Amino acid sequence: MAGFKEQSTQKLFERKFITEEQLAQIKSYRSLGIFSLNTELKMFLYLSVLLFTSGIGILIYQNIDTIGHVAILSFLLIVTVVCFYFCFKNSKGFQKTETTFESPVLEYLVLLANILTCIFIGYLQFQYKPFGTHYGLATLVPTIVSFICAYYFDNKSVLTIAITGLAAYVGFSVTPQDLFHNDFYSHLELSYSAIILGGLLILWTIYSSGISLKTHFNLTYLTFALHMISIASISNMVNEYDGLWLLFSAVLAGSCFYFYKASYDQKAISLYVFMILYVYIGINIFLFRVFENIDFSEIWMLFVLLIPGYFIGSIILFIKLIKNFNKETAE
After folding, report:
1. Which one-letter DSSP state was computed for residue 175?
2. Tally of structural domains, the chain
3. pLDDT tens digits for 2-32?
4. Rounded to a whole number, what is the largest CA-CA distance in the chain?
5. CA–CA dist 97, 94 (Å, integer)
6. Which range marks the domain in which residue 131 is found?
7. Domain DUF2157: where (predicted)?
8. Helices 218-237 and 269-291 sit at what angle, rounded to 10 degrees?
9. Angle between the 218-237 and 156-170 helix axes, to the nearest 10 degrees?
10. What is the pLDDT of residues 65-120, one digit of tens each?
């Protein structure tokens, strides 16, 4: 890694992006052997938030009969209010551009306050049903709170919770473990909802870019939109409804073309990689559906010989595309 950095720095100097004096300063700084613990500390802060909220959930579950509902709700409310008090006290207020707290601890305090708000509203609805049988409101209210907190405090983690809550309100899960268990195959309306929501997220990124509103949130929105639209489309490309697989193939092709351009605009390798994977899966399903009624019994040996080369060629092409993307975005 050190050798790679030295070579990269030397190339910058040779291309006259940095001066000889700057090159000497960079080498002098690297010789000090200083390294940052910023990432590690933030990881521990994030884990502490998860462990604390998980601990509260376990405490409620194990002592629900002895502690009492009112006491638990009161404790959650007090802790949530205290967290929000410190967040608002140290916040710079809402700004359209990217902002940060002076202390990174406060960013995770916002996350903690938001998660506790979701727990409080969910537990309140489960036990006392203030929203009656309108269980969707119990999802929508913390979702709205999460969006407000995400934009006011400029917190991407809270924005992720908000988008997940919005997806849950529409009717499907977008967590990694549940994403492929959504029943798109049996319920077409769920597929349409996923595609429409993904499209709305794209439209919001276009609108927010036009008014310069938290444009650094766009990658988060686009990532969710890519997964929603692509998985819903791919799931329905294998269904048995006549003609619909062609419709979803067109949707997948159009969305992937948009995300291809968006990945370059955002210079986001993650968006580009997932777009390629979805395109690859979609092309294979499309070819299978086109040739499924053709009898290949007489030339099946040819396919057996071609399949290894096909997969090897796919891997080589994938690597080449990634290299080209990195090269073009770096220039």
Report:
1. S
2. 2
3. 555 667 777 777 776 677 777 777 777 677 6
4. 75
5. 9
6. 49-170
7. 11-158
8. 10
9. 30
10. 677 778 888 888 998 999 999 889 888 888 888 888 777 788 888 988 998 898 88
